[in-house]
């Protein structure tokens, strides 16, 4: 649930990823974010890796250990309803959809779907981690201040 953002506000940000740059540029140095990460039992030094993230209008590229760089590039949009991203730079086909639905005046909800072509062994090894990652990603997106971006 994104209580204070319309589907238009969410779409405007997710369809133009450069609007996320201010967040990535400042998050590693934000003491409140570091504190929250420590409270969650995580290592706040992981924020330093965000400095290697590259963002342009239609894609976000980030390093993946032992694989190089992966880019999530906008493949398709449906105005104020959905943004579909395609993973590039990794040895499998993967797509990520973010759907936006209005639920009330000024509020919305989002649904994040990941489709990845994994063989049975890979599904057993990383399937639950991918599901957890998608859920965490959805929570993180829901917390963005879309109305100010």
Helical content class: 25-40%
Radius of gyration, whole Å: 16 Å
Order of SSEs: HHHEEEEEEH
Q: Could you say which overall geometry the principal axes of the C-alpha atoms support?
A: globular
Largest beta-sheet details: 6 strands, antiparallel
**Estimated structural class:** alpha+beta
Percent of sequence in beta strands: 25-35%
Q: How many helices in DSSP terms?
A: 4
**Mean of all residue-level pLDDT scores:** 88
N-end to C-end Cα span: 18 Å
Q: Numbering strands along the chain, what is their spatial order in the largest sheet? A: 1-2-3-4-5-6
Tell me how many strands there are. 6
Q: What are the low-pLDDT stretches, counting only 5+ consecutive residues below 50? A: none
Overview of the molecule:
With 149 residues, the chain is α+β, with helices and mostly antiparallel strands. Helices cover 32% and strands 32% of the residues. It contains 4 helices and 6 strands, in the order H-H-H-E-E-E-E-E-E-H. The protein has a 6-stranded antiparallel sheet. The model has no long low-confidence stretch (mean pLDDT 88).
